[in-house]
Design goal:
Blueprint: H1 2-13, H2 25-35, H3 40-53, H4 57-62, H5 65-72, H6 79-94, H7 103-107, H8 114-125, H9 134-143, H10 153-166, H11 172-185, H12 204-208, E1 224-235, E2 238-243, E3 254-255, E4 258-260, H13 270-276, E5 281-293, E6 297-308, E7 318-322, H14 333-339
Parallel strand pairs: 1-6
Antiparallel strand pairs: 1-2, 1-4, 2-3, 2-7, 5-6
Helix pairs in contact: 1-11, 2-3, 2-8, 8-11, 9-11
Residues 17, 32, 35, 40, 119, 177, 180, 184 line the site of adenine.
Length: 344
């Protein structure tokens, strides 16, 4: 039986991961959100720190957004953590802090799609919902030799239906994790380790020798290339930082003033950035270039340094901070690339 082989293999081979020591749906939720775009090795430390500081829904719901963002700093995709925080408030207010166990309620929590809902309900509550991520799509495509494009929603739907049918009675939790684990350790994207696979005898792709050609996935559209300009503005020994608007890509995180060069149909320059802030430059110098790759966008960054003659007119979304205080603010990786260029 596919299920028995898989579950026995999982029992013997599963990695010792911190979120596997609990069945607390809140903690599983945190782990799943962190794991959405980030590697397991990176997540472990973040997860431990986050859970230590916010051990319950109540602790997270009660926290200030800036502090929550600080605990996510460096993980990227910050809308994930803003949704997590919003979700915690909803669960605290509507469900007295208990993570719901009805799929309709779970799907209404911000940031939770079909995969994450299935993962939490199956792993934490042992309910028979499929959790189909990239790993599981790959495993099922190979085991059942599915030659449909996994980038198509109908292929995902088909595989979700198949996974649901395969969930063994009363074993949803381990089954979900065992599929993910097989995809992560054995049925890897390139050169899968078929000889070590518990589904060796069941795998149709392996039998016909096409395991390296599956899954079929059409290429996603090319990333948008965006030309950005940033200006590190210095006055005495302080630097001006600014908070990104709460709904944007880096919403709620802090950074240095900058613009997309061609935003709004005209060309932004260092001078226009400074003039918006009513800052008179004493001296402007180009510090260099940097690149940052997001999921759908690449930033090509020109970075300037300006010595300011005045402190300008700034609002609550701006602060003059010293080098020693910068760690108090959540600063995404992309701005650390800017930061690294500063000659203090
Ligand atoms: N990737 C997504 N969810 C996971 C989990 N629970 N364990 C390991 N890897 C994962």
């Amino acid at each position: 039986m596919i299920q028995d082989n898989l579950l026995n293999w999982f029992e013997k081979n599963k990695r010792d991961l911190p979120w596997r020591k609990t069945k607390d749906a809140y903690k599983i939720w945190v782990s799943e959100i962190m794991l959405q775009q980030t590697r397991v090795d990176t997540v472990i430390e973040y997860y431990n720190r986050f859970i230590e500081r916010f051990p319950t829904v109540e602790d997270l719901a009660a926290a200030e957004e800036q502090e929550v963002l600080k605990y996510w700093q460096g993980l990227g995709y910050y809308s994930r953590v803003r949704n997590l925080h919003k979700g915690a408030k909803i669960i605290w207010e509507q469900y007295t802090g208990v993570f719901p166990d009805h799929i309709e309620q779970v799907r209404k929590i911000p940031g939770i799609g079909a995969y994450t809902a299935g993962a939490i309900l199956s792993i934490a509550y042992n309910l028979p919902y499929p959790a189909v991520d990239g790993n599981v799509l790959r495993v099922f495509s190979r085991v059942f030799s599915i030659k449909e494009d996994i980038a198509q929603p109908q292929t995902v739907k088909l595989i979700e239906k198949m996974v649901k049918e395969y969930i063994p009675e009363g074993r949803a939790s381990d089954f979900t994790e065992s599929l993910m684990e097989l995809g992560a350790l054995i049925c890897v994207p390139v050169s899968p380790m078929c000889l070590a696979c518990p589904l060796y005898h069941h795998c149709e792709a392996r039998q016909t020798g096409i395991q390296d050609e599956l899954p079929i996935k059409t290429k996603k559209v090319k990333s948008k290339q965006v030309h950005m300009i940033f200006c590190v503005i210095r006055y005495d020994d302080k630097i001006l930082i600014t908070k990104n608007p709460s709904n944007g890509l880096l919403g709620g995180m802090w950074g240095v003033p900058g613009k997309e060069v061609n935003a709004g149909g005209y060309e932004h320059t260092v001078e226009s950035i400074l003039s918006e802030l009513h800052i008179q430059p004493e001296h402007i110098k180009k510090l260099g270039k940097a690149r940052h790759v997001f999921t759908h966008m690449d930033w090509d960054m020109d970075i300037y340094m300006c010595k300011a003659a005045n402190k300008g007119q700034i609002n609550q979304e701006h602060r003059w901070v010293g080098r020693e205080n910068i760690d108090d603010y959540p600063l995404p990786k992309v701005y650390q690339k800017v930061w690294e260029k500063i000659e203090w």
